Structures are given as C-alpha cells and as structure tokens.
Amino acid sequence: MQTSTAATPKDAAAVILLKHNTRPDDPEVFLVKRSHKLAFLGGFHAFPGGQFDAVDTEVEVKNCDDAETCIAISCAARELFEETQILVARGGEALTQGQRLSLLDDLQTGRMSWPALLKHYELHLDANDFVFVGRWVTPPFSARRFDTWFFLVKCPAKQRAFISGDAELESGDWVSAKAAYDRWQRSEILAVPPVLHGLKTLAAGFRNDAEIDQELVARFLAGPNAHREPVRRIEFRPNYICFPVRTPTKPPATHTNCYLIYTSRELLVIDPGSPYEDEQEALAAAVAQLLAEGRKLSGILLTHIHPDHVGGVNALRARVGNANVLAHRLTAEALPDMAEARPSGRVAIESPQAKPSLTLGLLPHTVCLADEDTIELDGEPRIALRVMHTPGHARGHLCLYEARTGTLISGDNIVGLGSVLIDPPEGNMRDYLNSLARMRALPNLSVIFGGHGPAIANPYAKLDEYVAHRLDREQKILQAVRDGAATPKGIVTVVYTDVSPKAHAMAERAVLAHLEKLVEDGLVRETSDSLFLPNN
Ligand SMILES: [Zn+2]
Questions:
Q1: In whole angstroms, what is the distance from residue 414 CA to residue 126 CA?
Q2: Cα separation of 185 and 191, whole Å?
Q3: Cystine design at 43: which of 326, 457, 477, 478 (Cβ 3.0–4.6 Å)?
Q4: What is the pLDDT of residues 414-437, one digit of tens each?
C-alpha cells in the first residue's frame, strides 16, 4: 500500500481580541464561528485569523526587530481587519466607522493593497499592540496544516466588530471566555486545542486591564503545545480524546484516529491502528495516564477490519493488559488473520455472542457486538454508546452514537479528509448508501468523529454531501454504460476525469461497486464475459 507524508504547515496568524475595558475577572473575547460550508473545520468556533499573504512582507512594523514576527503581525492585523472590521493601527484613532469601512472596501476590492493603504492613510502597525502568546502547529492527521502565531490584542476604543457573514465566517460575538469555555464543557461548541487553551487561560482572569498582564502571557505560553510541538491528545469535545496514530493508510491520510472515550471511572479505546512501535508506545502512554487517574480499561473497540484500524490492537493489549476486544462478529472472525501476528499474543476469539445490552468489563476477551447493542460507561458523565452495524466500507463496520451530546463515531464511513473507498466484495455500495441514510436519520447529531482527519462539526451537511457525491457518480457511471463503456477501466477514463491516473486502479474498484448496485437495481446487466451493458 502506498503511503503519503504529512502536509507541511502553512504560516498563519490569529488574534485573540479582548474587548475594550473588559473586566479582568471575567474577560470578554471576540469569538467567530466558521461557516458550515467550509471543508476545513466548518462549524467550529475560532479566533479571527488566516494565512500569511505575500504583501505582509512589505509592511513595516514599529518596535519589532524580527522579520518573521513583523510578517506575522501584519498578517494578524490584516486578517482581523478583513474579518471583523477592527483596525489595530496607530494613527487611525481619529478615523470614523464610515472611513474604516471605506478603507476596508479599498482593500477588499483590490483598489489598494494592505501596505499601500497603511501608507496612504499614514497608519502604522506597532508590535506593542500585538502580544505574542504562542505558536501552535496543526497535528499531522490533517491534510491542511497551519503553523499559527497567536497574538493577544486589545480592541481599540469606539470600534465595533462586525462579521459580514461572508463565505468563511457565519457569525462573531463578544463572549465571556468563561462562558464560552463552559459551553465547550457542556458539549455545545467545538474548538481546536489552541482556541480552547486561549479560552481556558482567559477564563481564569487576569490582574489588571491597564496593560496586558505578564502573568497572563506566561500562562498562555505555559501550554505544553504553545511552542510548535503538535498536540497529541485532541479533545474536540469533553470525554472524547482523538489520538491520531501514524499508519500505512490510504493517501492523503497519513494517520488513523484512535479515540479514547472516558468517564471518571472507565475508558474505552477505539481503533488502535498503528503497526509502528513508537506510535504504539505513545498511545499506550496516553492510555496508561488515563488509567493511572483511577479508571479501568473497559475494552478496545474495532470499528472494522482494515489493517490501519486494527494494526496495534495486540500491542496495546500487551502493554496495558488483556482488555476485551469489542467488534462486530464479521470483524472478530477475520481478526486473527488481519491483526499483526505476534507469537506472544494473538487476539483470543471467545464468547462470540451478542447481547441486547452490554455492561463492559464483565465479558472475557472478545465480545461480539451487534446492531442496537448499547455500551455503557460508568462514572461521570455517564456515557451510553449505541452500536450501529453500518456495512458498506467493510461488512462488519460499526458506528457508535451517543444521543445525549449527538456524537457519532463514524469509523471509515465518514472521514475528515480524503474519500471513502468502497471496494467489493468487502465493500458494498447499496449497503453503504443505506448506512449513510441511517446516520443521516439520527436526531440531534452535532459532531462526527471520523476514522481519519479532523472532527466534522457540520454533520448533516457532510452526510448530504457524501450521498449527493455517490448518487452523482452513479448517474455518470450509468450514463457511461449507456454511451458504450462496458468495463470498469473504460468507465473510469470517462467518469473519473477529476482523479489522477495514479488513483485509477482504486477508482476501478469503486466503479465496480457502483456497477454491482446498478445490476441489482436492474439498470445494468453483466454478460458472461464480464462486460456491463445497459438494460433497456
Ligand atoms: Zn477502512
């Protein structure tokens, strides 16, 4: 299997904007919500910001002796202005709201570049207005990665932040950092680790509001990942840790998301997929830490049989004790062949019975799960995961749904990056579409945690997109057959024009899956010499 290397992070800057004269004991900050339509982190809450632009190198920043910092400050100021209409530039104090808007119009219509605009209106940026509070790098599990400079900035007096509701941002509001962090704790919003760190740090308050407090800055910088060391434990939602592990998976993915779902008393591990020893050790250390805090390991659940999801199951059991392995019967039966065969510890397949409701910890070794089983984790908060048998990508594929918070663990049925391969006979397109429909019918869905890539905060939009994409492909494939293409290879060349020739072998597998469904639907027939012809 070919593998790809992690994407190189792109430089970016973000602004943690403090309200003018905010209360030091309960500071307010400007939080934006990213549009549901965005492919990357759509629906997430964030701080304003964006990527470096070439023009940022041309902006002079006073009191800044480091060239790279100057660029980051220019980027932060520009993005803040573009996204929120807040202009943090010296010499601009006398500008009215209307004048600032006309400047913004000059910038956005391209009449004036950012450096030219600053010069023309005799404005300048000052590093003293942008307090550096850390650099965070997106972990390598994402195809889009950023090396983001965070700046704490006080909003100038008499400026009103405003979100135009454009393509990128849905809304923006002044919120108490404490209240926003509480909302995350109640599973009401999703944010990436640096944003959560910022909210949590501000929520503790600071000493004075005359100057940005040095002690506050120190707390920002004390974050273990505030200096470009990517986060390993990503807690998009409380009690659900996403722990991506490097795996030989399907490009563009380079990692498989292992999930650690915990309560005060129990821990459930999902898909320890890495066959690599360093990654297995890192995962085992994270598990051991959660256990050392007084939890018991309730089991290791496998969403499906693919090697990038089960590759580290024996290694984890060897390191943290013989935990139960939970899987669908079809996965469990195939497991001894697929799991890394080590002389010291093959996965035992025992008591393969499904029960209507399972309390973990009571059953030995391998537990077969069936559709509509419930996995209950004891402790605080009580977590009840509904097991859904959702074949399509793999026959024994499971998803897990928690109704209270609307959380769906989707395995490889929905992923945060790349596409889902339906490869017959393990893969089945009709089953897959039925599984997507079942997921789409879940009430109150607020997040999807996929087997690869970042969490999905716009679940229904994503599910609709997946279904529409498949049906669109199906129509094109049917049309290609009607136009005379009779083999998967021939169909790929006319339908998969958006896919590089390198990926054609895989595309042929997907076409075959579509053809099987079309044959079942009676729209296409297969001849004895494996040609696909239209049914009239
Ligand atoms: Zn898979």
A1: 45
A2: 11
A3: 457
A4: 998 888 999 999 999 999 999 999
Tell how far the Cα of 393 is from the centroid of ligand 1, in angstroms: 7
- Tell me if 172 sits within 8 A of 46, measured CB to CB: no
CA of 67: how far to CAs of 127, 131, 170, 235, in Å?
12, 16, 33, 34
Phi, psi for 205 (deg, rounded to 5) = 80, 175
CA of 459 from ligand 1 middle (Å) equals: 19
Q: How far apart are CA 70 and CA 73, in angstroms?
A: 5
Q: Measure Cα distances from 106 to 49, 51, 101, 158, 466 in Å.
A: 20, 20, 9, 21, 39
309 Cα to the center of ligand 1, angstroms: 7
In 254-356, which ranges are continuous DSSP H helix?
277-292, 307-310, 313-320, 329-338
Of 195, 192, 226, nearest to 17 by C-alpha is 195
Contact 4, 185 (CB under 8 A): no
Q: Cα–Cα distance between 331 and 334 in angstroms, integer?
A: 5
CA quadruple 259, 261, 266, 272: dihedral, nearest 10: -10
- C-alpha 274 to ligand 1 mean position (Å): 13
List, for residues 193-240, the tens digit of each pLDDT value.
999 999 999 999 988 655 668 899 999 999 889 999 999 999 999 999
Q: Nearest to residue 254, comparing CAs of 412, 499, 399, 418?
A: 418
pTM: 0.90
Count of alpha carbons within 13 angstroms of residue 227, beta-carbon side:
6
Q: What's the rounded Cα separation, in Å, for the pair 384 and 141? A: 27
Cα of 176 vs centre of ligand 1, distance in Å, is 41
Q: Does 1 score more than 60 pLDDT?
A: no
pLDDT digits (tens, 9 = 90+) for 383-421: 999 999 999 999 999 999 999 999 999 999 999 888 899
Half-sphere CA count of 132, side-chain side, radius 13 A: 17
C-alpha 306 – ligand 1 centre gap (Å):
5
